[in-house]
Amino acid sequence: MCKEVLIEPPLQPVTGESLRPGTTLEDGARLDIAARGLWSPMEMAFFDVRVIHPEAESNAKHKTPTKMYTSHEREKERKYGDRCKQIENGTVTGLIFSTSGGMGPQATMFLKRLATLLVAKTGQLYSLVIANLRRRLRFELLKTILIAVRGHRGRFYQKALPIDELDLNLVRNTNDDVDENDEDEDEEVKDHEEGDDDDVEE
After folding, report:
1. Is there a domain that residue 169 lies in?
2. What residues does 3 pair with on adjacent strands?
3. pTM of the full structure
C-alpha cells in the first residue's frame, strides 16, 4: 500500500525557516511513524501516537470526549505541523487513542483510509476489513494497558509460534482417549509378560 514506512523517523533540522510559535525546533525531533503515499501519491505522511486516560485529571476539564480528542490532536499539529509542511513537505496526523478503546477524529479517518487501501489491494469487503482493524487495535491497546499496570511477564522478544504449530482444538478428542487407553493396556501386558519371565527364571 505504502512504498515507504519508517518507525520513529528523525525530522530534518530547522535551517532558518519562519515557523509559527509553539513549533518544536530542536534537532533530532522524531515522530512515531512515517508512510509515503497514504493520503496522496509520493507525499510523506507523519503520525504521532498518544494513548490517554479519559478519567485523568488533565482530561476532566473537557466537557465531551470529542473535545478531549480534538485538544490533543491540535497539540500535535501545533508542535509538528508547520515544521513538517515547510521542511518535510508532508502532513502530520495525531493518532489519539484512549485506554477505554476510543479514538479521535483523525485516528478514525486514518483507519478508514487504511481500510480503503486494503480493500483496493485485497478485494475483500470493506466492513470486514475495518472491523478487523478496529478489533486488532483494541486488543493491542488492551495489552499495552495490562503491561503498564502489571508489568511485562515472560521473555522479551519472544517469538510467536507459527499458526500451523498451534493447537487450537480446545475440546478433547475422543480418539486421543482411545489411543491413551490402548497405550496403557500395552504397557500392562508388557509388565505382566516381564513378571512371568522373572517367575520362570526363578
Report:
1. no
2. none
3. 0.68
